[in-house]
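Lecture notes, continued. The same structure-token format from the folding unit now serves as the input rather than the output. Read the line below as a description of shape only.
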């Protein structure tokens, strides 16, 4: 009931504002937690910490949809943090793009206007190539591998470098769902079926390259504008997860969904680094523990349940057909895209280490 009330309040806040204007990722190898660990120091140096007894109020912005699995995990995390801190840490979670789109909320956390955001790897890709390795096509194709990969020391090294370069502290992660193809022209059964299609993609130079290699024309459209782009035939389709097709009702505008699991779509929990360093050790630990628990709930319950619900709703709509790309047909996609891995190994040794770690999991 508490979570449902939180969702209702979030919806009321979203409407009213519009009417007037994710653990322990740096753990030793073999650990089982699913979020990056808090670091009590940073490359830019520690800031003066807030006294432990002072109340802390945190604005948590997200352009993501409040019905998606990451939001469910965030509400769990916020409940845990409030209860464990005795109400001394208050997190005001504002989803649904109320505070702006991807680039807007990223800029706000970087300049300190808000203290924390949920951001995708694609949002980080606007500022660094390091995060692109988390979405290399066909490198990570299942959730168990993703949890291990994003909790690894190799991933933590990338998080630390992002903190150093951008002043952003990644303290946790979640997941929106593996990405597939969806369009209004034909079912995708092989690479040739993509040729000539205008596909909306998440913003990323690497993904642009991958989609072009596969023969489609990539187009960037804001996440919350995709429905109208499909409706007005600005795009023929999209690379997308089942959860977004369902949450944003894209199935009303799509004829074909072709499941392939091209890459994951992690949602990172990110703090302004200076604000993070101003918190006490105990406050940081409570917050990271909360988002670890939220992440675990997403992967164990919210994501699989929501994907099942999404698939059933798409089928029940009777206007969208679902097929699966597998076997030799899928391998053709893999063969075209995996040379991109080698190109990214050459970009940075941290990326090379991350790719090597993921390969070691198979």
């Amino acid at each position: 009931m508490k979570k449902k009330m939180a969702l209702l309040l979030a919806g009321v806040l979203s409407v009213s504002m519009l009417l007037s204007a994710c653990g322990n990722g740096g753990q030793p190898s073999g650990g089982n937690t699913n979020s990056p660990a808090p670091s009590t120091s940073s490359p830019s140096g520690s800031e003066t910490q807030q006294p432990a007894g002072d109340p802390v109020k945190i604005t948590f912005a997200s352009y993501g949809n409040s019905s998606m699995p990451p939001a469910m995990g965030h509400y769990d995390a916020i409940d845990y943090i409030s209860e464990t801190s005795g109400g001394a840490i208050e997190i005001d979670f504002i989803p649904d793009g109320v505070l702006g789109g991807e680039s807007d909320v990223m800029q706000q956390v970087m300049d300190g206007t808000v203290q924390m955001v949920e951001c995708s790897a694609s949002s980080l890709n606007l500022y660094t190539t390091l995060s692109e390795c988390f979405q290399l096509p066909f490198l990570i194709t299942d959730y168990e591998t993703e949890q291990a990969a994003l909790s690894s020391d190799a991933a933590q090294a990338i998080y630390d470098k992002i903190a150093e370069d951008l002043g952003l502290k990644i303290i946790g992660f979640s997941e929106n769902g593996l990405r597939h193809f969806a369009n209004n022209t034909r079912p995708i059964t092989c690479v040739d079926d993509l040729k000539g299609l205008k596909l909306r993609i998440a913003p990323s130079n690497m993904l642009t390259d991958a989609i072009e290699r596969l023969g489609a024309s990539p187009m960037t459209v804001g996440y919350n504008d995709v429905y109208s782009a499909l409706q007005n035939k600005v795009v023929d389709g999209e690379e997308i997860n089942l959860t977004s097709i369902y949450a944003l009702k894209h199935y009303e505008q799509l004829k074909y969904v072709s499941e392939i699991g091209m890459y994951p779509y992690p949602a990172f929990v990110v703090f302004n680094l200076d604000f993070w360093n101003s918190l006490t050790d105990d406050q940081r630990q409570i917050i990271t523990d909360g988002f670890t628990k939220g992440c675990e709930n997403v992967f164990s319950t919210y994501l699989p349940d929501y994907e099942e619900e999404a698939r059933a709703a798409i089928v029940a709509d009777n206007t969208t057909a679902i097929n699966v790309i597998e076997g030799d047909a899928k391998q053709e996609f893999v063969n075209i895209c995996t040379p991109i891995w080698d190109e990214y190994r050459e970009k940075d040794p941290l990326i090379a280490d991350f790719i090597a770690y993921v390969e070691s999991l198979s």
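Point for the exam: Residues 1-48 have pLDDT under 50 and may be disordered.
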